[in-house]
Amino acid sequence: MNDKQLVALAAAQYVQNDMLVGLGTGSTANYFIAELARRQRDEGLKITTVASSTISAQQAQAQNLAIVALEHIGRIDLYVDGADEFDSDRTLLKGRGSDLVKEKLLAKAANEFIAVAEAGKRVDRIGQNYAIPIEVMPYAWQLAHKSLEDLGGLGDLRPNAAKDGFWITSHGSYVLDMRFANISDAQQLNTLINNTPGVVEHGIFHGLCDALFIAENGTVSEHWA
Ligand code: 5RP
What we know:
single chain; globular; 2 domains; alpha/beta; 4-stranded antiparallel beta sheet; Alpha-Beta Plaits; binds ribulose-5-phosphate
């Protein structure tokens, strides 16, 4: 069993009957979804899920998990999702994909948000290995880009896979991938980007995660708030 699978399985142990469970997006989240399906099949676990992306909804549906739409929920019991980076403060960088908005909504709506990651994703400062993905309204991208540059950001619109246009998220936003070498405090950067007009959402998840489960060489450690 690899570390992604191991950490996903550790989080799945926290799922109990009658919970409404938020499903993250990515390869680690896929292992979590598969484990929920296994527990439903083998242990008779009774849950309902809500997905952070179409791909996760498809995974859940294919494995016979009950799904409700995001627009029908207020709170959820538990959200489990992966991350691209995490720091000592349990701040995460997420959003390599296209589903930041739903991911952050579910992280915020959850009574408990467990983030799951391999130890190699640990960083000293958020944004160390990846640019910060910042979703912007398409018509506002130049103005938002200018505001972010004024904060010291460097970066540009994310190209599409064919490199003949721009990446469009599942909400129809563009993505600016920006690096801020001048700001090392993730909380400060979170606030500054939140306050930028035209920004729909961004990949810094600060103060949202109740527990971070880290897998390293076949062992999982749990870090609760
Ligand atoms: C998607 C995400 C993912 O959770 C993150 O990219 C980690 O992915 P993986 O589990 O495949 O390593 O934030 O928006």
